[in-house]
Amino acid sequence: MRRPAAGVTGGRKLWSVAAAWLDYDRDGDLDLFVVNYLDWSAGNNKLCGMEGRRLTCSPTDYTGVPDLLYRNDGGAASRTSPSRRGSPPTSGRA
Ligand SMILES: [Ca+2]
Asked: Cα of 63 to ligand 1 centre, how many Å?
């Protein structure tokens, strides 16, 4: 498997719903901010509703997962949680 040159890999599979490029630390290199949503997969899918009637559970039945900031260190990316860098904690599920 080919690895991305910038070091931005998923590792644990997350449900990412949006991303934006910005210069977070104002060093002239673009950083990547990824917004994640819920801790959901086919393996932890929950069933809600009455017996015999499969319904989709509410997003509130799942745990939100943190957003990620990939800091561009001039050729390689390092992943950090924005909440550890002085910003308010973020989670994809509001
Ligand atoms: Ca930067």
From this structure: 30
C-alpha 31 to ligand 1 mean position (Å): 5
Domain that holds residue 67: 16-80
Place of tokens 């943190």: 66
CA of 32 to the centre of ligand 1 (A): 9
Say how many Å lie between the CA of residue 21 and the centre of ligand 1: 9
Residue pair 79/69 in contact by the 8 Å Cβ criterion: yes
Q: How many domains does the chain have?
A: 1
Which tens digit of pLDDT belongs to each residue from 60-89? 999 998 888 888 888 666 766 655 555 545
Residue 83 contacts residue 66 (beta carbons within 8 Å): yes
Does a structural domain hold residue 9?
no
